[in-house]
Fold each of these.
Amino acid sequence: MSSGLSPPGSRRRDLVAAALLGPAALAWPRVVRAGAQIEEPLADAVRSALTAAIADRAPPKPQFASIDERLAHLRWLGAMSDKLRKQKTELVTRVEFLETLWYESTRAGLETGLMLGLVEVESAFRKYAISVAGARGYTQVMPFWARLIGDGDVARLFHMQTNLRFGCVILRHYLDLEQGDLFFALGRYNGSRGRPEYPNAVFAASRNWTYPPR
C-alpha cells in the first residue's frame, strides 16, 4: 500500500524527464510508490468471515431511519463533492464514488473521513493506480487478497465497489486484529506496522475530509 510519500529525489527526476522528453513524459501514468500488505495465514473462520463480507453484493443504496439523517447525509455528500471536484471533475462519477465509499465504510464500521484520507494517500483517488508492489485501485489492494477471500480475479480489484469493499473489509480486519488500535491497523494495511510515516500521512489527510469540520 502507498505511503503517500515520494522517495527523495524522485520529484527532481520527474522534472528532468519532463524536460528531456517533453509533453510525452507528462502523459505517462504516475506510478504509485507503495508499501505492501503482508500475506499472513488466515484461520479458516477468519477467511470464511472475510469471504462472506466480500461476497455480499448488496448495492450501495443509503437507507436512513429519519428525514434528519437523510438531510445530514446529503449535506455531507455536497461538502465532500466540493472538496473532491479537482480529483474527479465529472459530477456523476464523483457522486457515485462518494456514495459507494460512504456505503462501504459505514458497512464496515469505519469513519468515512478516515477512508477518504486513506484513498487520498494510497492512490490520489485514481481508480486504475498500480503500485510498484502490484497493489491495485483506489485502496491499493494486494492481489493475494483476491485469492484468499475473493474469486481470484485480480482484474476485479479495479472495479470501484469491489475495490472499496476489499479496502474497508481488510482495514476492519486489521483493526479487529489490533484490538481497535488504528495506528497499528493502518501500519498493517501498509505493511509497515510500528512505523509512523504511513499512519501519520493517513491521519493528516483524513482531517481534510472530516465532516462537519473540526
Amino acid sequence: MSPARLLIIDARHGLRHIAREKLVDVLRAGDLVVANDAATLPASLHGTHVRTGEPIEVRLAGRASLSPELADFSAVVFGAGDFHTKTEDRPPPPMLARGDELALGPLPATVTGLLGHPRLISLHFASSPDEIWSGIAHHGRPVQYAHAPTPLALWDVWTPIASPPVAFEPPSASFALDWQMIAALRARNIGFATITHAAGISSTGDSELDDRLPLDEPYEVTLSTARAIAHARSSGGRIVAIGTTVVRALEHSARNDGTVHAGPGLATGRVGRGTRLRVVDAILTGVHERGTSHYELLRAFADDPTLSSAAEVLAAHGYRPHEFGDSVLVIHADPLIAAAGM
C-alpha cells in the first residue's frame, strides 16, 4: 500500500498535498495536538431474536457513560447476513418490541425500548459486568463494512495510542499517529494530549437513521489535558483535533463558558455549519463523503465552496476514503484564527 497522503484545506492559503507523515512540518511550537485514545470494542454481536428464532446482528452503538458497570446500551439491529453485504442492502431485523429477548452468543439481552426507529433499540444485558465484557470480548467482532472484504481482527481497529476499550468503531483519525510522530511533536515543542471518547458507529445503512448520527457519546477529559489546552490557548498556540470525536468532546465541554473542563461528559447534538467553535482551530480527519455526519462537522471549519473544491481535488487525485485511507487537515476559516497561517 502506498504511503498515506494528507490534503491541507485552508480557505485563506489554498490547498496543498503532503505525505501524512509530514504533519509535524505544518504545525508550529506552542500548538497542541489532541487525540482520542479510546480502544475499539468488538461491538458486532451475532445471535437470535428469541421470539421468532430469526438470526440478527446487533451493533452496539452507544452508552450513557464510560462506566464499566453500565449494562445498558443503544444498538442498531440488522437481519441475517454480515459485513460482506453493503450496509444499505442488509435486510431489516424481525419486528422488535419492548421486552423481546435476544440471545447473543453467551449474552442474554432484553430490548428495553425502541428509539424512534424500527432498528434502533435500547437493550439491557442480564449479566454481571465481568460477564458482559467477557462475553463481548469472546463473541463480538469489530463493526465492519463491505469496503474492507477481509474480516478484521480486533488489533486491526486499535489505533497506535489505544487505551481504554470504550469505542464502538475506531476513532480512525488516530491511525495517522505513531510514536515516532509523537516524539517529533515533542521535539519541536508541540504539545500532545489525549481524551477518551466512545466513538459511535458511522453508518446504519438507513438514510433516516443516518440523519440522526452521531448519537450521544460519553467522553472523559483528564485534568492534565484540560490544563494543556488552557495553557496552549493562553500562549497563542492552536488546538489541533485528531478526529471528529475530539471536536465533539472539547466543544461540548466548553459549550457554556468557552473553557474545557476536566471530567466526564456526554456529547449531544451536532457540530456543523453555523456552529461557533470555541476551542478547536484545526482538525485532522479521514476523507468523508458529502452528507455524512463527519463531513457535516467539517462545515464548522470551512465554507461550502472551500469544501467542494477540496472534494473535487480529493477525487481527482484518488485519495482513499474510510478509516484506513488518507487524511485531510482542515484549518478553521475564521480570519482571527487562520491569520497566523501554517
Amino acid sequence: MNNFDKREKWGSKIGFVLAAAGSAIGLGNIWKFPYVAGENGGAAFFIIYIICVFLIGLPVIIAEILLGRTTQRNPVGAFKSLTNSRLWPFVGAMGVFVGFLILSYYSVVAGWSLGYIYESASGVFYSFDNPKLAGGHFNKLISNATWGVSMLAIFVILSMFFVYAGVQKGIEKGSKILMPVLFLLLLIVMIRGITLEGSQKGLEFLFEPDWSKVNAITFLEALGQAFFSLSLGMGAMLTYGSYLSKEDNIPKSSLQIVILDTLIAIIAGVAIFTAVFATGQNAAEGPGLIFHTLPIVFNKMPGGYFIGVIFFVLLTIAALTSAISLLEVVTAYFIDEKKWSRHKAVIVFGILAFLVGIPSALSFNVLSETKILGLNFFDFADYISSNIMLPLGGFFIAIFVGYKWGFDKVISELKNGSENLFEKHLWTISVWKILIKFISPILILLVLLHSIGIF
C-alpha cells in the first residue's frame, strides 16, 4: 500500500479548489488589497497587480501543488522524498515554521474582525461621525489585553474545529459552506455600495487607470501583493496538493484558484471604494481603512447597520479559511513525519498557536514598550515571516522545481491529469518553464529586497 492509498484525500475537485482558494483568500484580499490599491492610484495598480499574479503567482502555485501531489507528503517530507540533500528539507521546515508563526499573529487580527461583528451588531458605530473617533474606539479595544486575548482564543478554537475533523469532513466540508457564504455576503456589500449615490467615483477610481501615479514602488507593491495574496512560500498549497490524486488537473485547478482569489479582491475593492467615495471618506487611508474608516462609512450609508455586520462576518470567514490552511500545514507535518494522530496534532498546535499569539495580542497594550530590534512582538513576527521567510520559501520552491528536481520529471508529473491541455496547447509547457525558471525567481527576489527595505 503506497502513500496514494493511505493518505487522506479530497472528496471532490471543487472541494480542493474551494479549500485552496480559501487558503489564498484572506485578510490580504479584503483588508490589504483595497488600502494598498488606494495608496497606489487605484486602477493603475489593479492592472499591474493582475499582470504580476500571472507572472509570479500562477507559476509558483502550480509548482507548490505539484510538489505536494507528487510526493503525497508535507513540505518537509516532500523535499526529503525528492532529494538526498539536507538543504531542501530545511526549506520545507522553514515553510512549516513560518506557517505556524503566521497563524499565531494572523489570528490576533482575525480576532479583531471577530470582535467587530459584535461591535457592529451592538450599534456602537452610530456614535462615530469621523474616522478619528472610530480609530479611537479601535485603539481602546486593542489596548484591552483581556479583549485581545479572548478574541484570539475564540478564533483559534474555530480554526481547530475544522482541522480536527479531517480533510474531507472538516476542511473540505467547511470550505464548501464558508466560501459560498463569503462570496454571497461580499456580493451583497458590493451591490449596496454600487447603489449608493456618488458610488460612481469609486468605480472610476478602481477601473480608470491614472498612470501618472505609477512609479517603481507601485510595481514592487503589486508584486508583493500578488505573491502574499496567494499564500505562497508557506507550504499551504503544497500540503493541500498532497491530498490530490494523480488524475487531478493541476494547471486547471491552479488557474481556478488564482481567478477566485483575484475576483474576490476585485469585488472587495468595488464594495469598499464605492461606499468610501459615496460617503466622502479618504480612499488612501492606509491600514486603518477597515477599522477606522469603514465604521464611519456604515454609519453614514442607508442600511449601513446590516451591511456593517455582514462585512465583518465575511471578513472573519475569509480569515478563518486561511487560518485553517496554516494549521493544516503543521498538522500534516506531525502526522507524516512524527506519526502523530490528527487529533493530537491539532490540539497541541492549536494550543501552542494561541500561546505564541498572546505576545502579539499584548503588543498593543501591556507589551507595547517591549521591543525586539525596535519592533513590538507582533510587528517583529510579521516582519520575519512576511518580509523574509515567505519570499525565501517561494524563491527556493521555484529554484527546486526549475533546476534541482529535473525538468523532464517535472513535466511528466505535471502531465498527469492534464494530458488534454498539453496536447492541445503545447506552448503552455514552454511558457511555464520560462516563468518558473527565470521570471518568477527574479520577481520573488525583487519582492524580498523590497520587503526588507533595500529599495
Amino acid sequence: MPGFRLALSFLLAITSLASASASAQSQSDDALKLARAARTQVGVTRNYDPAYVRLAYPGGDVPVDRGVCSDVVIRAFRVAGAVDLQKLVHEDMLAKFSAYPKLWGLRRPDSNIDHRRVPNLQRFFERQGKALPVSDRANDYAAGDVVSWRLPNGLAHIGVVSEHRLAGPDARPLVIHNIGSGAREEDVLFAWPQTGHYRWFPETPRR
C-alpha cells in the first residue's frame, strides 16, 4: 500500500508538471503571436496620423494605412489574442475614471481616443497587474512585451518587442513601432528613457 501511494504521488507530480509546462508553452505562443501580429503592420501602416477619429465601438480602428504608435499595439492585441484594448480600457475608465491621467481636460471617458493615448495604456496595464521592472538588460525583454518611452520632445511613445534580435553579445530585441513614418521594426529598445515595461501573456502560468 505505501508503495502504491508513492507511485500515485509520483504520477500526479509528473502530470502536474506536464500540465504546467503545456500552459507555459501556450502563453509563450500567445506572446509570439502578439509580436508577429505587430510585424504584419510593417509595410501596411505607412503613415503617422494623430487625428481624432470617431470610431465604432467595440472593435473600432482608424484606417489600417495610418495611425500612431499606440495603434500598433492595439491592432496587435486584437489580431493575436482577440484582446480589444478599446473596450477594456473604456470599461476600466468607466469603472475608475479617477485612476487615469488628467492630461486632456476630459470629464468622462471617450471610447474614440482614450485607448489610443499612451499614458492611458500604461495605467491600464498597471491596473491589470501587467507591469514589469524597467531594465537596461536586453535579456529581461521577451517577444510580445510592450515598452513605453519618453521621447526627447517630451512625448510618450510605445511599441511591441519583436522576437527578432540583433546578432552579437548584446542580442537586443528589435521593436515594432510607429514614430512618424509608419510601422517599422527597429533597434530602439534603449534608444530613449523607458517609462514602462509590460507583459500581457506571462512566460510562466500564475498559481
